[in-house]
Amino acid sequence: MKIVHISDLHFPTMIPFLSLKGKSIIGYANYYLRRRKKHDLTLIQNLISYIKNTEYDALVISGDLTNVSEEREFAAARNWLDPILDARTFIIPGNHDRYKRESLHPELKFEKYFSEFMGTSVSSEYYIRKKMIQGTAFIGWDSNRPLPIAKANGYLDPNIPKETFKIIGNDYFLVCHHPIWNPGNYLESNGHKMVNRREIAELLLEKPPLIYFHGHSHSNWVKAPGKLAPYYILNSASSTRFSDSSHACGFHIVNVRDSKNMDIKRISYHLLSETFTETDLLLFEEDRGEI
Ligand SMILES: [Fe+2]
């Protein structure tokens, strides 16, 4: 099975400042002044065409399609992604898609635009979504909730893995926005990381996924299977951003033959030629970082 994984697309959308309220004013100003120019329109168009012209079985998008969860951002994200949304797509939300209370009430904004690509809900109590692609389950978890300004951390109820194990067989892929492991040169603060990820990693030992797909930290990496997390962990954030000295951006394409036999390629944007091309894989052993 060939899987394309992209993440943290943060599609640029112009929002009139005067229409924003509360936390969104600072959040959008931060995006507008610091990050807007890094998410280039030509790069985004090239990313969509590259995927459109690639043969694959599944497309995983691990959240953060918006910046401050405004309605017009969700509509723009749906529009940008339209050429590559089909039965092979599996999407989950990121913290920027659950940025404020209004993104959840009175309606779930992310679901309003993307529900047909989010799989089926398999729990009445927790966000656990499942989609079968080519006979293998893709499981989606939502580690996000609205938080005060300058906080972006995640949390998963420990019942979520336990409930998930009841509805899956041996082989499954897991998609969650927050990392469960970081390389030593890219550690996250408590205000940014999934706060109980060690607990979740320990629970996952009972039924490890084939791959844990995530985003959130805007740099690509791959962790090889190890003792604490006996599975590959892939970070494809950010796929729509220019790389710089502290952000190795791009995305991954994985060819899964079986649980031990995977061919992982990293694709990144080449600024001068304005094309996506295969580049060096940033592969780490587990002891080069921490859960
Ligand atoms: Fe994020």
Describe this protein's structure:
It is a single chain. The protein is 20% helix and 24% strand. It contains 6 helices and 16 strands. The strands form 3 sheets. Strands 4-5-6-7-9-11-10-15 form an 8-stranded mixed β-sheet, covered by helices on one side. Strands 3-2-1-12-13-14 form a 6-stranded mixed β-sheet. The relative contact order is 0.16. The mean pLDDT is 93. Bound molecules: fe (ii) ion. Residues 64, 94-96, 152, 177, 216 line the site of fe (ii) ion.
* CATH class term: Alpha Beta
Total individual domains: 1
Task: List bound small molecules.
Answer: fe (ii) ion
CATH architecture heading: 4-Layer Sandwich
Strand content: 15-25%
What characterizes the major β-sheet?
8 strands, mixed
Number of helices: 6
CATH fold description? Purple Acid Phosphatase, chain A, domain 2
Which class best fits the helix and strand makeup? alpha/beta
Strand order of the largest sheet: 4-5-6-7-9-11-10-15
Pattern of helices and strands: EHHEHEHEEEHEEHEEEEEEEE
Give the uncertain stretches in residue-range form: none
What Rg is obtained from the alpha carbons, in whole angstroms? 18 Å
Q: Summarize the amount of helix as a percent range.
A: 10-25%
- Give the terminus-to-terminus CA distance: 28 Å
Average pLDDT: 93
Determine the CATH superfamily.
Metallo-dependent phosphatases
Tertiary shape: globular
Organism: Leptospira ognonensis
InterPro entries: Calcineurin-like_PHP, CNP_phosphodiesterase-III, Metallo-depent_PP-like
Protein name: Phosphohydrolase
Pfam families: Metallophos
